[in-house]
Structure formats: structure tokens, C-alpha cells
Design goal:
The chain has 15 helices and twelve strands. Strand 1 and strand 2 form a beta hairpin. The chain is elongated.
Length: 351
Amino acid sequence: MKKLLFIMLTVITLVSFTACSPANKNGNNADTSDDAVSAENSTADGAGEETSSNEETETNTPEVPAKEEITITHELGETALTTNPERVVVFDYGLLDALDYAGVDTIIGVPQSGTLPEHLSKFTSDTYGNAGSLKEADFEIINELKPDLILITGRMSDSYVQLSEIAPTIYLPMPSATYIASFEQNLNTLASIFTKQADSFTSEIANVKTLVSDIKEKVTAGNYSGLIIQANDGEISVFGYGSRYAILYDDLGFTLLDETIEESTHGQAASFEYVAEQNPDFLFVVDRSAAISSGDGQSGAAQLLDNELINGTDAAKNNRITYLNSTNWYTVSGGITSTLSMLQEVSDALE
């Protein structure tokens, strides 16, 4: 009897203990359920953070410019290359100016043995290989630089074949007798090669053409004659059609009083008497000595032209003698920054 009573009390105690334990409707312990919910929330939060991190990584990934095989036809031949080259050697300061203006940052070599304008002075640093001079390439250095594109103009044309053996080489004309047409052609070519910066090149073509049109309109309205002369070591030469400064006549509309001036990139030797006899409305002066040295481009030529004959011209009397930025006009012509500066100088002279 006592044994039966003990068994019954034990069963009652066990039932009571079980009834007092909190449980969910599925019979699982409540604490276990909370842990599961917490773990589930934690997993969800982690997934959100991972997704956000992935999205951020994708957003910050730099755009890689497309590569495409193209062929450029130029005066010295046909050159096959890959667009958006990553190692470029440039043998012309005008082209260097244009590339720098457009934001091309893959230039590795330039001719540092020359006078670079202030706006291109960064290319004199050791960051860039010294590829030689504007007229003479340092083939050993160029080989070491391992370029995938070389750009040249007329000064380096004799080295085209040898440079082509190192890397794809493209010849682009130096703007001269057909300045604006050559400027447009060169920038369109650069846009087809450096497609990442194509808009920067093509937009400036339209900008320059607008400036040229505005200047020509003023020149035509005033029926102005003009003459551009170059001072060099105490001597002067004059430039007409077909010259490196023909932009003054062909594109900007100044009347050339003497159409017999020889068509030459180096100009025709002249005297002060000749200039006085021509007596143009505007005189524009380039100091070559300053352009190829560290001179200021004005003082030497101004001193040379400060004489009775020049001072007696209508240009002098009307304060229409303009001493141009010689470096831009002589060594950096064809660039974007330089061309904008050149046009601004002529525009200012007309004010």
C-alpha cells in the first residue's frame, strides 16, 4: 500500500513539472525558438550587408576603355593599332598639347631636349622618358620605354620607318597652310584612337571653328590687311600663303598685300624698308630666338623693331603691332591650348 502511494506521488510531481515548463504550440522550448529567430534575423542582416557591399564594389569599379583593332591611313602609310593605347611616345609638342588637354594620361615619353611651354612643363620631369629632340629620336630610350604607339609630325618624318620597327607609328601633318583643316583632321584621328576622350577632342573642333568665324567676320568687316613677320638673331623674314603662319590669311581673312611672297615654311628674308613699303593695317611678330630658348618671346623682337621705319607704319601709329606668344606659334602649333591662345591673341588685337 505504501509502495503504491509513493509511485502515485512521483507521477503527480512529474506531470506538474512538465505543465509548468513554457512551450510553444509546436512543443518546442520558447528559448530555443527565440534563438532561432535571432539567428534568422542575423542571417538576413548579414545578407543585406553583403549585397550592399557587392553593389558598392560594382559601382566603384573603374571603367576600362574598350579595345579595338583599327587601321589609320596617313601620308607615310597605313598603321594598324589597338585603340586606347597604354604606352604612348609623342614627338610633337602640338600633339602633346592636344592629348594633355583631352586628359590622355598614358603618355610615357616626350622629346625633352627642347623648349616646352609653361602649360606642358610637367613633361620635363623624370616621370616621362626623354625620347630625344623634336628632330632626332633617341632610339635606345624609346626601345626601353616599350611603347604601343608613337606619334610624329613633319620634323620626325625621316625616322618613320625606324620608329615603326619599334611600335605602331602614325604621322600627322603639322598645321600650316591649311591650319584649321589640319587641326580638325588631327583631332579627329586622335579621337578615333583615344576613344575614351573622343568627345574632348571633337568638341574643341567646333569651339575653334566658332572663334575663327568670329575673328574672320571682324577682319572682313574692317577690310584689314595684315603681315606676319619673324624676328631671328637680328634679322626678319615675312610669311605669306603656304607658310607655317598662313592661318592669318587663309583662315582669319587678313589681306596679304604682297602675294608674291614665296610659299615657304621658313619665310622670305625681308628688310625694314620692305615692311614700311607694304604698310599693312596689322603687324604680327614671332620671335623665333625666344621660341627655341628661354626668352620671353617679346623683348628681343620689340627692341629689333623699334626703329624709324617700323614706327612710321600705320600699324605702329594705330597701336596694331602684336608680339605673339612665340612658343605657341612656332613650336606648339596645332595643340588645343595653344590654338585657343593663338586665336585669342589675334582677337585681342582687333579690339
